[in-house]
């Protein structure tokens, strides 16, 4: 098996499906099924979920809200997404634990690194909510940070584009996709598929990143088993 432990980052926006806002249950159910195939193959999976489908701190700041306050709202939004994904996974028999970087005793465990690793070793999927717990960060950075902390082999960013392009493919139809790219090239070319703090953490800790289309059923297991899917950054 190529990977023993994977950190899967799911963007909030991809949970929207075709909706303009919020959560598309069909999409969440598809993700849960795809995650199950990877768990059933004996691979450990931890997940960080974004919140962009509900609330983004930066956008709220532009409308006049104080940034830190807005960012805490964004972190709470990620927990809502995590709970939706947790429900969908439990419905199909996956054992899960949700850990939040901001304490919410009635809802989930607090983030405790060693406990998270023990859950993973016993076959549970651990979902990390509330990002890093700090404003001015993103869930991409939370994904890199948690992946390093729990000694994952890779960060897989499952999103709605099928890899990293020479420019944002949603804005530039002439953009072409890389199969592989170095951390340095991501900086040099200013590619915005993940924020630079997240990229730097992975670079400094020699942790590869794969960006792939999570909306295509079966992609996650292919990737987990070592097939070439999406773009690898290393
Ligand atoms: N060079 C590039 N290659 C690929 N995608 C790019 C590139 N530049 C910008 N993007 C954009 O990055 C987005 C991927 O980020 P994603 O939607 O997963 O956002 P996020 O900020 O991680 O999550 P959230 O929606 O939770 O805020 C794609 O939708 C794509 O349009
Ligand atoms: O560590 C973190 C993670 C996230 N935030 C805030 O949450 C929203 C949603 O996260 P995305 O990564 O954009 O999906 C983000 O816009 C921040 O406002 C944070 O403050 N700290």
UniProtKB/TrEMBL annotation:
A single Gene Ontology CC term: cytoplasm
CDD domains referenced in this protein's UniProt entry, alphabetically: AAK_UMPK-PyrH-Ec (cd04254)
Claim: Ligase is one of the keywords in the record: no
InterPro entries hit by this protein: AceGlu_kinase-like_sf (IPR036393), Asp/Glu/Uridylate_kinase (IPR001048), Uridylate_kinase (IPR011817), Uridylate_kinase_bac (IPR015963)
Functional pathway: Pyrimidine metabolism; CTP biosynthesis via de novo pathway; UDP from UMP (UMPK route): step 1/1
Catalytic activity as recorded in UniProt: UMP + ATP = UDP + ADP
Top EC group: transferase
Residues reported in the UniProt entry to bind UMP: 51, 71, 132-139
Record carries keyword Nucleotide-binding: yes
Aspartate/glutamate/uridylate kinase domain boundaries: 4-213
Regulation of its function: Inhibited by UTP.
EC annotation from Swiss-Prot or TrEMBL: 2.7.4.22
Family: Belongs to the UMP kinase family.
Assembly information from the UniProt record: Homohexamer.
Function: Catalyzes the reversible phosphorylation of UMP to UDP.
PANTHER family for the chain: URIDYLATE KINASE, URIDYLATE KINASE PUMPKIN, CHLOROPLASTIC
Entry-linked HAMAP family: PyrH_B (MF_01220_B)
Protein name as catalogued: Uridylate kinase
Organism, as annotated: Mucilaginibacter hurinus
Gene assigned in the entry: pyrH
């Amino acid at each position: 098996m190529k990977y023993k432990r994977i950190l899967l980052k799911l963007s909030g926006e991809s949970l929207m499906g075709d909706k303009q806002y919020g959560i598309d249950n069909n999409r969440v159910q598809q993700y849960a099924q795809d995650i199950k195939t990877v768990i059933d193959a004996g691979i450990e999976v931890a997940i960080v979920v974004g919140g962009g489908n509900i609330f983004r701190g930066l956008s709220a700041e532009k409308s006049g809200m104080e940034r830190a306050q807005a960012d805490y709202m964004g972190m709470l939004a990620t927990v809502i997404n995590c709970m939706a994904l947790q429900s969908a996974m439990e419905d199909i028999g996956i054992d899960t634990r949700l850990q939040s970087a901001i304490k919410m005793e009635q809802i989930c465990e607090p983030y405790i690194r060693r406990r998270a690793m023990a859950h993973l070793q016993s076959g549970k999927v651990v979902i990390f909510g509330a990002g890093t717990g700090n404003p001015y960060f993103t869930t991409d950075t939370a994904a890199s940070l948690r992946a390093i902390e729990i000694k994952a082999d890779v960060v897989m960013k499952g999103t709605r584009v099928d890899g990293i392009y020479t420019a944002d493919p949603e804005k530039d139809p002439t953009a072409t996709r890389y199969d592989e790219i170095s951390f340095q090239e991501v900086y040099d070319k200013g590619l915005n598929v993940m924020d630079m703090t997240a990229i730097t953490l992975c670079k400094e800790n020699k942790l590869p990143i794969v960006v792939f289309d999570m909306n295509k059923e079966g992609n996650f297991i292919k990737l987990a088993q070592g097939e070439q899917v999406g773009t690898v950054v290393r």
